[in-house]
Amino acid sequence: MILKVAYWLYRHNLGSDNMAISYALVVDQGGLWRIVTSAFTHLDLWHLGMNMAGLWSLGSELEPAAGSSATFLAQAVVLAVFTGVAALAITHVLVTR
Question: Who is most buried in 36, 40, 43, 68, counting CB within 10 A?
Fold first, then answer.
């Protein structure tokens, strides 16, 4: 959660609006890092707050089931990559229609 909030504050202070994940940015321009960092991007404070509230409540329930913080973190990273790839695939299909 701290990383997500810190990243949002960093991006918000830069004033950058180029936080999107798209086929062109990832595949054509080689921005593979966007697949992972898309999990950290939030458009506004409300979006960030609601995601952090969900992460706090759901994470509190799931972390003990994972067995350790390291396992939970590894699962979170895999989920971030999976959701980035899924978002990329979905947007590519919708845009190319």
Answer: 40
